[in-house]
Amino acid sequence: MKWLTSLTIAIGLACAPAGAQLTNTAPVAAQSNAAHQAQRDAFVSDLLRKMTTDEKIGQLRLISVGTDNPKHVIREMIRDGQVGAIFNTVTRQDIRAMQDQVMELSRLKIPLFFAYDVVHGHRTIFPIALELASSWDMNNIAKSARVSAYEATEDGLNMTWAPMVDITRDPRWGRVSEGFGEDTWLTSQIARVVVKAFQGEAPTDRHSLMTSVKHFALYGAVEGGRDYNTVDMSPQRMFQDYLPPYKAAIDAGSGGVMVALNSINGVPATANRWLLKELLRDQWKFQGITITDHGAIKELMKHGVASDPRDASRIALKSGIAMSMSDEYFVKYLPELVKSGAITVQELDEACRQVLNVKYDMGLFADPYRMLGAASSDPVDTNAESRLHRAEARDVAKRSLVLLKNRLNILPLKKSGVIAVVGPLADSKRDTMGSWSAAGLARQTVTVYRGIRTAVGNDATVFYAKGANVSNHKGIIDFLNQYEDAVQVDPRSPQAMIDEAVAVAKKSDVVVAVVGEAAGMAHEASSRSNIDLPQSQRDLIAALKATGKPLVLVLMNGRPLALVREDQQADALLETWFSGTEGGNAIADVLFGDYNPSGKLPMSFPRSVGQIPIYYNHLPSGRPYTPENPGKYTSHYYDEANGPLYPFGYGLSYTTFSVSDVSMSSPLMKRNGSVNASVTVTNTGKRAGETVVQLYLHDVVASISRPVKELRGYEKVMLQPGESRVISFTITEDDLKFYNAQMQQVVEPGKFEVFIGLDSQRVKQQSFTLL
Ligand code: BGC
C-alpha cells in the first residue's frame, strides 16, 4: 500500500481551491485511540445519565428534510429532543439554522449531525462508482473521494451514505452503477481507499466526512436482479465473495454501516441479529453506528417477520439497529417498549451511545458549528463556479473510460474536417452526471457535444442532431419522469429524428453517436429485464450504419449492456458510463487522443441477458464446454456462446502491449513463504500509454471447488513506445486462503495456477506448488 502514504499530501494539494486549505492534521491525531475512547466513553456516559428516555429515543431518529418533514415540523422535533440527525440538507445556512434551533430550543443541546448521499461527488460530480473502478487506479479513486469530502464538509455535512460496496454479478440490477463491480478483491481494495479518502486522517479533521458503508449486507445478490428482492446464499459464497468488501471498509475505520433492505436466507438484514451483532460486532469488532436504510423498520411487517409497528421496532432495536432512517416507529413505539421492559434501558442506552459516539468523534460536542464557521464566511453563491473542482473531475473521468473496440484505429479522431455528433445522450447534461448526483447541477455539466466543440474550436465543423429519444416506450418514459422532469422527449416522430441525423451524418466525415441509458435507468429501483439498447436507439444506429460513414459509439450507461449487435456495427466503441460534471471534456480528451485510454472493465459484459449471472471467477463445472470439442452433455447454452462479449479486466489503448511468458521465482512455495511471478510488458505501438497488468490465481485441487481464476494483484503501468518493464507480483498464503466446507479459513497445499495478462481471458500461464 505504498501509495497510501503519499495519498493525503498529493490529493490535498491537488484539490484545494485557491485560497482554501485541506487540513489533514487532526487535533486529536496526537491522542492515542485508547485515550480518545476513554474520554469519549466518560463524556457519553455522563450525558446518558442526564437524558430522559424520550430524549434517548429522539437521538435514534434520522429524518430527511422535505415534504414529509417541513421545516416547522422539524423545529418542533428539535425543540422536543425528538431528532438525532438530518439528511438531504446541503447548505451551511440551512444546517446552521437547524443547529441554532438545537442550541436555542432543546434542553440538552445535543448537536445534530448532517448526512447526504455523497456517492460520486458533491457539487462537482465525478464518474459513477462503476466507472471509478474502471480506472484501476487507487489514486484516481481516492482523489474523487477526497474532493467530494472537501466539498461536502465545506457545505457543513458530517456523514455520507457511501461507499456502496455491494458485489453484484447481475447487470439487470440498476444499482450496479453505484458499486465497484463483480470482483471481491478489487472492490475490497477500493472500499478501503474510499473510506480512508472520505474520512481523512481523523474524524475531527476539518474536511473529514464520516462514511457509512452500505448496504450491509449482500444487497447486490437480489434474486433476478430485481431491486429489494430476496437474497439466498451459501455461507461459503457469502464469506468468500460478498462480505469481504464491507469488512475492508470497516477495517479501514468506517464510522457507520447502513443496513440493507433485503432479507438474507429468510431474515431481513434490519432484523438480523446474527448479521448485526454476531458478525458485525462480535467477530468484526465494529464500534461505529448502524443505521437502517430508508423506512426499513416499517418494511419488517411486509417481510412478514413483525406483526405490527411495535413488534417491528422491538425486533429492529434488539437485532442491532441504532438509528432509524425515515420512519417514526422508534419515536412512537420505543417509549412503551422501554416502559414495559420489552426493551431494556441498557439496550436503549447502547443504541443511543452509538449516536452520541459518532457525534463526539465528529467533534460536534466540542463545537457544533465546526463544519460551518461564522455566517459571515458562508459562500455568497453555493453553486459558484469557483467552488467546483473541474480539473480534478476531468482528470479522474478521462482515466476511467474504457475503449472496447477500435477497428482500423479509427480513434483517435482528428481535430479537423466535419464531425456529426448525434444521439439522445450527446447533449444531455442531466444524464451525463449519472444517478445519485448529490448537489451537482445539470447546468454546470459538460456534455459530449459541448466537449467536442470546445476541443476542436474552429479547426473542425461539428453538426449535432438528437436522432432519437432515449426510448420510444411511453411506459419507460413515464417511469423515468415519475418524480422529476428527468427526460425531455422530443415530440417529432422517430423517423423525422432519424432522417435529420442521417442527413447530418451524410455531410460529415465521421459520426459520433452517444447512446445508452438515461441516468434514471441505472439507479435505485431501476431494474431491467432486458439489457439491450432501447429500440429507438438501435434504429438510429442502424440508419447511421447504413450511411457507410465511420461510426463511433460513445456509450453512456450504468450497467453492462448486451452489445453484440453494436459491436458488429460500430467501428469504435468507447464505454463512458456516466462521467459527471466534466464528462464531455474528458470524453473529448480520449476521442481526440489528448489522453490515451487506460480503463479496464470491472464487470463482465454478457452477450445477452440470458447468460446472467456471468462473472469471470466462477467455479469449474464437471462437464465443461470446450468450443474446440463441443459435446452435447456439456455446460453451455445451445443458442448462445459461452463467455462474455467483453471479459472482466478488458479494455484497449491507442497503443499495443505484449506480455512475456510468466516466470516464477520458484516452482515451490514453503508454508508461510512466498513466490514471485513476473512478466515483461512491452509497449509495442507508437504512442505512450498505460495498461493494467493483472494477476489471477487458481487452486487446482482443493477440498471444495475453487474458482477457475481469481484476481489477486494488478499494476497500472505507463510505458513509452518500445519501452519494456518487468512487473513482479509477490504471492503469499494470504492470496490462497478460502473458506472450506466447515467454514474454516484455510490454505491447502498443492498446485496453483498463475495467470498474468491484460484482461481476465488473454493470459499467460504458469504454476507453483504449495508444500
Ligand atoms: C437507498 C440508500 C440511500 C438512502 C438515502 C435509500 O433508498 O437505498 O442507498 O443512501 O435512500 O437517500
From TrEMBL:
Catalytic activity from the UniProt record: Hydrolysis of terminal, non-reducing beta-D-glucosyl residues with release of beta-D-glucose
Any coiled-coil regions, as ranges: none
SUPFAM superfamilies tied to this protein: (Trans)glycosidases (SSF51445), Beta-D-glucan exohydrolase, C-terminal domain (SSF52279)
Any one GO molecular function term: beta-glucosidase activity
Superkingdom per UniProt: Bacteria
Keyword Hydrolase: yes
Family: Belongs to the glycosyl hydrolase 3 family.
Entries under PANTHER family matching the protein: LYSOSOMAL BETA GLUCOSIDASE, PERIPLASMIC BETA-GLUCOSIDASE-RELATED
Protein name: beta-glucosidase
Primary gene name: bglX
